[in-house]
Amino acid sequence: MKITAISLIIISLIVLSACDIVSFLQGDAELREAAETGDIKACKKLDTSKDEDRIDNCLNKMAGIFNESEPCFEIIDDDTMNYCIRSVATATDNVNLCSKIYDMNTKDSCYSDIAIKTLDLESCDKIDYMNFKTNCYKGIALKKSDASVCEGLNDPKEIGECKVAVVSVTNETSVCAGIKEDTDSKDRCYQAIVTNTGETDLCDKVEKKKDYCYQAAAKANDDEKQCDKIKSEGMKDDCLNVIGKSKADDSICYKIVNTMSREYCLMDVAPKKKDITICDTIKDVRIKRVCVKNTAVASKNTAWCTGIDTTSTDYQDCFFLIGKDTKDASACDAITAKGTRQKCHHNIAVTYKDPAVCAKVLESDENEACVKSAEVFNEVQK
Asked: What are the sequence ranges of the domains in the chain?
């Protein structure tokens, strides 16, 4: 890949003329020098025969260097001019400059950026698009940690969304209680506090989406009892799955109704408990195989690897990963097929590039091959 990249650069330089090569290597020093003069005329004198945007780019750069908007208005391309004005406006907190921008999205983002930076709600009110306006109010409310700022919005849903964002940081239950017209936002408000604090009693205040709140309470407290309150079978299974894995408790996994979800839960718990018998309860062949491999690796027990189907990649991976973790290629010795066994030795030797990992390999020819692999790749690295 590196050779290809270098070749392309060389070919490009051959095609370019002498002057072009200098410009290529210097990153258009002439443009940079013109911009640094602060003289608009200097930019306008640049040759544009090979790059029609060169003057615009020079003026844009000049405006950025001096934080002056005058060069922006000399730019021909509308997008470049709008970007230029916005950059100068936000850099200097000059909200009046935003009104000079033609593109509505760019103009609104200009007002929003300055408003949030300066905590100026009046600038938010100059925004046309509701999404930008909501984000503007939300940004100031978050910066001030003050949900009352959200009241400046007109739409109940936008007000609710704004307040939920603030409460996610402040955990003020009184703010949730004050949301009257938007039940969904009110519910999410209480849920946000439960997620942060684990206050399970707040779920009683949720009107419509109690299941989401119980799920949040369960995760916040690592408590499967909260999962039992969930009515939706799918959400309850998801909840038990998360807690079962988190607590490494297979008894929680067994409560899951969906077979696949239950077995994935058990697959994750078995390695954490280093209990191979948990894998034996799994019916799905693939999930069981991965469970055995991961549990064997976690326990560094190659005997358990032998229970995996020898035709699967998990079989060799099981021995290799144990050998890799223990820095001992002899972990592969239990592999029955000689070719697969030697490949396992080789992979571990190459991983560490250290003949010492081969010390316990029993068969002399395999020990010699293992050492050779380590030495060869060690030399290659040097």
From this structure: 28-107, 129-220, 222-289, 300-382
